[in-house]
C-alpha cells in the first residue's frame, strides 16, 4: 500500500481496522520528492535575471550551482562567488571570518523602511556595536533559560490544537497560517508575558500578522534598483509599504518598552520574568553597560522579525512533508506518543522527530540565502576571491548539492537518524548559519519546533487536502507561494 490512509485488510479477529489509523509496517517508505524549481540549463540574460530576482531568486540557480563546489564570476551585483564546499564555507564563517562582513545589499534589504537614525538590532549591526550587543544578549538564550520556556511553548501549541479538535473530524486547516499563530502566541508569551495576546499592547494578533506579512513581503522582494546600486533617494517599488509596516512595528515596540520600563521602576517586585525584562536588565559582561531604550526596542523588533516567520515556516514545511509522507508521520507519532509528559525533555530526546525536522530544514531552509562581502582578496577552494566580491552561501543550494547529498531532492529523514547523521559534514548543513554570527535563537527555535511537532503528532493525523503542492518562494525567509490546506483527524 502506498502511503494512503485506508487499510482494508481485516485483522485476525475479522474486524475492520479504523480507516484513519494506518499501520506503520503497511506504509511503504518510498521517498517523497517535493516540488522544486528546475535548475536552469542555459544562462539567462541581464533583464531576465532582474525579473527572476524580483519574482523568486531561487529560480535563478543553474545546474552548475547544484553541481560545482565554487562558482565565481561577474554579475549584476558585481563579482559574485557562490560557495558550496564545506571547508571553504568554514573559512568564510570561522577561519577567516574577519575578512567577510555582511554585504551592503543584504543590509539595505533588511534595514529597508527603517527611519534614519533608528538603532540597529543584532541581525544588521556590525563591528564593535555588534560585538557588544552579542555579548550582552547571549545570556538571554542559554540552554537553561530556554528550557524554562518549554511548558509555555507546549501550552500555546496545545491551545491551538484544541481549537482544531473542536471542529468536525476531517476539517481542513491552513497549516501555514496555524503555525504562524502558534509562533506568534509563543513569542507573545515568552517575550512579553502575553501582553500581545490580551490586546493590552494596543494591537491584536490579526494586526501583527498583517503587518509582519506586509513587511517581509515588501522588504523581501529584491528591488532592481538595489541590485543596480541606484542611490537611496530613488523611489523603490515596495519601500513605501515596508516603511509603513516598519513604522507600525517601531511604534508598537517603543510603547511596549516604555510601558515595561515604567513598570520595572514603579513595581520592581511585580515585573514579569520574560525576555523583555531580561533585555531591559541585560548588561555587557565586559563593561557592565546596559542597552539604551532604543537598542532594546531595535532588538525586540529583531527577535520578533527574525524569530516569528522562520520558526513558523520551519513548522509549516515540516507538517506539509509529514502529510505527504505517512510512513514518517506514523513513525514520528509513535515516538511522540511514547515520550514522557515533560516537554522540556522533548528537544533532545526524540531522535525521529528531530530527524524529520532537520530533513525538512534541509529541503526548505527557512533562511535560504546568506551573503558576505570580502574585504581583502582571498582563496576559497582554490578559487581567487577579489576584494569587494559578494560571497554567497545559500542553504537552499548547499542542502540540495549533488556532491554532498545522496538523492538530494528526496525527503529522507533517515539521513539524520543517529548512526547516519554523524557522517553529515558540519558545513554542508547550515539552517542556522555558523561562526560568530550563527543564529542566537537556534536553541529557542529548535525547542519550540520540537514541542509543537510532538504536540501535534500526539493529537492529530494530517493529510493533504489536495494533490497540488505549494511552491517555495524566497522573501528573506522561504515561504509557500500559497496556503497549505491539510485535513485534520483526531487520533
Ligand atoms: C527555525 C528558526 C530559525 C532559523 C532557521 C534561523 C536562521 C538564522 C540564520 C541562518 C542566521 C544567520 C544569518 C547570517 O549569518 O547571515 C540567523 C541569525 C539570527 N537569528 Fe535566527 N533563525 C531562526 C529563529 C530565530 C529566533 C527564534 C530568534 C530570536 C528569538 C532568532 C534571532 C536571530 C538573530 C538576532 C540573528 C542575528 C545574529 C547575529 O548576527 O549575531 N532566530 N538566524
Architecture overview:
- The protein has one domain (31-490): Cytochrome P450 (Cytochrome p450), CATH 1.10.630.
- The protein is 45% helix and 11% strand.
- The protein has helices spanning 46-55, 63-67, 86-95, 104-111, 127-137, 143-147, 150-165, 175-192, 205-219, 224-227, 239-266, 275-281, 293-324, 326-338, 346-349, 351-363, 395-398, 442-459; strands spanning 70-75, 78-83, 100-102, 171-174, 370-374, 378-380, 383-385, 390-393, 460-464, 472-475, 477-480, 485-490.
- Strands 1-2-8-5-3 form a five-stranded mixed β-sheet. It has a three-stranded antiparallel β-sheet with strand order 4-12-9.
- A hairpin with a 2-residue loop joins strand 6 (378-380) and strand 7.
- The structure holds protoporphyrin IX containing FE (HEM).
Amino acid at each position: 500500500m502506498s502511503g494512503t490512509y485506508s487499510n482494508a485488510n481485516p485483522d485476525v479477529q475479522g474486524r475492520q481496522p479504523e480507516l484513519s489509523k494506518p499501520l506503520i509496517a503497511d506504509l511503504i517508505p518510498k521517498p517523497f520528492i517535493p516540488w522544486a524549481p528546475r535548475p536552469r540549463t542555459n544562462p539567462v540574460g541581464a533583464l531576465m535575471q532582474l525579473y527572476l530576482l524580483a519574482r523568486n531568486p531561487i529560480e535563478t540557480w543553474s545546474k552548475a550551482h547544484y553541481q560545482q563546489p565554487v562558482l565565481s564570476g561577474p554579475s549584476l551585483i558585481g563579482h559574485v562567488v557562490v560557495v558550496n564546499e564545506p571547508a571553504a564555507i568554514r573559512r568564510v564563517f570561522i577561519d577567516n571570518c574577519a575578512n567577510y562582513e555582511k554585504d551592503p545589499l543584504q543590509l539595505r534589504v533588511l534595514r529597508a523602511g527603517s527611519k534614519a537614525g533608528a538603532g540597529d538590532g543584532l541581525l544588521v549591526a556590525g563591528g564593535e556595536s555588534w560585538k557588544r550587543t552579542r555579548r550582552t544578549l547571549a545570556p538571554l538564550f542559554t540552554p537553561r533559560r530556554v528550557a524554562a520556556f518549554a511548558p509555555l511553548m507546549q501550552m500555546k501549541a496545545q491551545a491551538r490544537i484544541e481549537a482544531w479538535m473542536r471542529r468536525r473530524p476531517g476539517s481542513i486547516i491552513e497549516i501555514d497560517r496555524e503555525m504562524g499563530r502558534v509562533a506568534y502566541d509563543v513569542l507573545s508569551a515568552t517575550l512579553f508575558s502575553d501582553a500581545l495576546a490580551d490586546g493590552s499592547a494596543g494591537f491584536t494578533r490579526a494586526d501583527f500578522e498583517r503587518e509582519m506579512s506586509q513587511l517581509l513581503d515588501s522588504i523581501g522582494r529584491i528591488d532592481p534598483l538595489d541590485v543596480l546600486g541606484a542611490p537611496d533617494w530613488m523611489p523603490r517599488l515596495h519601500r513605501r509599504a515596508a516603511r509603513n509596516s516598519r513604522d507600525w512595528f517601531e511604534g508598537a515596540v517603543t510603547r511596549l518598552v516604555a510601558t515595561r520600563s515604567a513598570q520595572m521602576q514603579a513595581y520592581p517586585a511585580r515585573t514579569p520574568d520574560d525576555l523583555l525584562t531580561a533585555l531591559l536588565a541585560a548588561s555587557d559582561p565586559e563593561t557592565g553597560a546596559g542597552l539604551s531604550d532604543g537598542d532594546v526596542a531595535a532588538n525586540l523588533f529583531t527577535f520578533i522579525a527574525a524569530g516569528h516567520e522562520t520558526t513558523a515556516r520551519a513548522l509549516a514545511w515540516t507538517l506539509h512533508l509529514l502529510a505527504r509522507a505517512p510512513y514518517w508521520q506514523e513513525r514520528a507519532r509513535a515516538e511522540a506518543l511514547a515520550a514522557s509528559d515533560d516537554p522540556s525533555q522533548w528537544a533532545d530526546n526524540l531522535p525521529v522527530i528531530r530527524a524529520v525536522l532537520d530533513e525538512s530544514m534541509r529541503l526548505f531552509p527557512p533562511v535560504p540565502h546568506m551573503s558576505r562581502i570580502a574585504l581583502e582578496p582571498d582563496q576559497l577552494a582554490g578559487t581567487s576571491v577579489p576584494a569587494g566580491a559578494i560571497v554567497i552561501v545559500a542553504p537552499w543550494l548547499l542542502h540540495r548539492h549533488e556532491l554532498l547529498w545522496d538523492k538530494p531532492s528526496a525527503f529522507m529523514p533517515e539521513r539524520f537518524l543517529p548512526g547516519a547523521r554523524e557522517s553529515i559534514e558540519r558545513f554542508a548543513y547550515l539552517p542556522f548559519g555558523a561562526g560568530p554570527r550563527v543564529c542566537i535563537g537556534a536553541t529557542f527555535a529548535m525547542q519550540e519546533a520540537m514541542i509543537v511537532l510532538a504536540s501535534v503528532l500526539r493529537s492529530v493525523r494530517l493529510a493533504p487536502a489536495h494533490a497540488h503542492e505549494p511552491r517555495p518562494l524566497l522573501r528573506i525567509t522561504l515561504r509557500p507561494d500559497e496556503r497549505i490546506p491539510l485535513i485534520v483527524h483526531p487520533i
